[in-house]
Amino acid sequence: MATRRGPAPNPNAVRRNTTHALGERPLSGKVGAGRELPKALGIETGAAKRFWKTWASAPQTEDWMETDWAELEVTVKLVDAFYKGETKLAGEIRQRVGKWGATTEDRARLRMSFDKQAQMEAGKAPETASESDIDTELYKLLSEG
Predict the structure, then answer these.
(1) Is residue 82 included in any domain, yes or no?
(2) pLDDT-based confidence at 117, cuts 50/70/90?
(3) Which pLDDT tens digit goes with each residue over 28-84?
(4) In whole angstroms, how far apart are CA 130 and each of 32, 65, 137?
(5) What are phi and psi of 16, to 5 degrees?
(6) Is residue 52 part of a domain?
(7) How many domains does the chain have?
């Protein structure tokens, strides 16, 4: 039997650091109207246009300021270049979208939570491109290299 080092834990211990200094960021979970893709960006690939549409209407954008939208513009240019064959940009794109809460893990790290009731009331899934369109585009990109 192993012995414990140090004093035994207090049975009435209370955690004092249960909340984060920045707090949680509750989001409604509703898909918004978003913003139109600025034509001046010159986005050419369908994947980059879908990327903009997805992020421009994401619940995370509820409280975005102009600097956040400017960051999305830069990122969509990177996504456009990625789908034109500059695959070395994948890591940079992943870092940028991670700061917006792209995955479940990112949202947990950022302490984002969605209002489940609002999601259920919305009751419909967001529009997505067909899998075959995305597969075709990725196949084309990967076979060129």
Answers:
(1) yes
(2) very low
(3) 556 666 789 999 999 999 999 999 999 999 888 887 889 999 999 999 999 999 999
(4) 21, 31, 11
(5) -100, -10
(6) yes
(7) 1
Position 68 in a domain: yes
Q: Which residues of 88-118 are buried (b: 16+ CB within 10 A; e: fewer)?
A: ebeeebeebbeebbbeeebbeebebebeeee
Tokens of 7: 């004093």
> SS3 string of 86-108?
CHHHHHHHHHHHHCCCCCHHHHH
**Encoding tokens for residue 84?**
């034109």
Q: Which domain holds residue 73?
A: 26-144
pTM for the whole structure: 0.64
Instruction: Quote the tokens at residue 76.
Output: 């969509």
Residue 1 lies in a domain: no
Quote the CA–CA distance of 69 and 125 in Å, as a whole number.
Answer: 24
Ramachandran assignment for 98, one of left (phi > 0), alpha (psi -120 to 50 degrees), beta (any other): alpha
